[in-house]
Amino acid sequence: MPRASWRGHLRLSLVSCPIYLSPATARTKPIRLHQVWHTPSAGEEGEPPTQHTEREVIDLRASGPHSDQVEDRTEPAAPVSRITLRPHDPTTGEEIEKDEVIRGYEYERGQYVTFTQDELKALDLESSKVIDLETFVPRGEVDSVYFNSTYYLYPDGQMAVEAIRVIGAAMSDAGVVGVGRLTISRRERMVMVDPRGTGMVLITLRAADEVRGPQFSKADVAVDAEMLAIARTIIERRTSKFDPSKFRDRYQEALRELIEAKMKGLPIKPQTVQTPAPVVDLMAALKRSLVQETPAAKVAPPKRRAKATPNRRQGALLLPVRGGRDEKRDEPATAATRGRKKA
Length: 343
Description:
The protein has 7 helices and 14 strands. By secondary structure, the protein is α+β, with helices and mostly antiparallel strands. The strands form 4 sheets. It has an 8-stranded mixed β-sheet with strand order 9-1-2-11-14-13-12-10. A two-stranded antiparallel sheet has the order 3-5. The chain has a two-stranded antiparallel ribbon with strand order 4-6.
């Protein structure tokens, strides 16, 4: 079972069920560069530090490709220590124990009102324990600029599975997402709940005053039709399926190579970054881009659903089909047909 970061209830009108949230995203562990300083060795106070290896101060958690074409060069290493940040009195510099630190709000310069943990706990709202689906909006109507953090919403126990599936199926049929409130990390936020199979995805939303309005200039001139057609062709050639696994953090890879080069005493080769030249003739740039673009792999069209085989047991629901032997057998005899039989 995924680790729960929040437990409570999901409520739709008079229907409620226990749920728990688990983060849908994870922070990858980057290469950590610590804050350090050169500690003067015995008898070397006042001397400038020499170049050193960073083996003692950098936590290298992953390995990557590197070049071994240059021989290692040993360099003298100066002693290095990692600094620590501790709470202290800014006036006297005296260190303060962590259990002596409390929360406070500065209402005037140097004037604080302080709070105990019990006083802060008393502020808990209903949304601290219950996500009430207050309203529903069409899927796609919520602008992604409001998206904040993403969680998976799981039913907490077998009794909640059916309720989650019923609510989720109803939302999927209606093509809507639910909007409610959730208090987490001492902030009450709007949340968007979107069904996903037997569970749901919950996205915390930023408030209106947290999102800046765009300040784009108004378009006074219509877009050139030929330019638009070329740009669309380039986009179509680059259109493919979204595959996040192909993304690589090239900066972290370059940082890892730099660390390994310094640890081995290899020369550092600076990378060159070319700044693109400003486009003077947009039409000419579009045409050159079109020539060098190769079509991307075509996305396979969705398979057509096979026609459902009618259930012969539900004869009352089937519409009559004209023609065939059954129609001739069941057709009521008319005067004309009776006349033909006698003849």
